[in-house]
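To whoever is on call:

I kicked off a structure prediction for a single chain this morning and the downstream step that reads the tokens threw a length-mismatch warning. I double-checked the sequence; it's 104 residues and nothing unusual in it as far as I can see. Pasting both halves so you can look.
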Amino acid sequence: MKDIHELYSNFKEDFPQVNLKYEELGRVIHEESGPIGKKERWLIKVAISGASGHARALETHIRKAEEAGASKDEIKQTLLLLISTVGFPAFMEAYSVYKQVFKS
């Protein structure tokens, strides 16, 4: 996936060795740490970034979830789960990112 955030591209240029280690850690965690499937891992990341209020990460995770086979409805339901867990305002922030990604 190409970088969708210029800031991340800048980070990679400014700190190439740190980025290599960061990406390797992410790969090991995602691919070698347990039995959860790829689509489900990205939906979990959607929930985490949405609950944490990390809009840039959420945008990336929504796109990665879709690439991994998650439907728009699965992503939307993942975000709806935020309402009863972290509150309606957190959901609305995350939902605004969802709407922006899918321009719907």
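Update from on-call: the warning came from a stale cache, not from the record. Cleared it. Sanity check on the structure: The CA atoms of residues 25 and 55 lie 22 Å apart.
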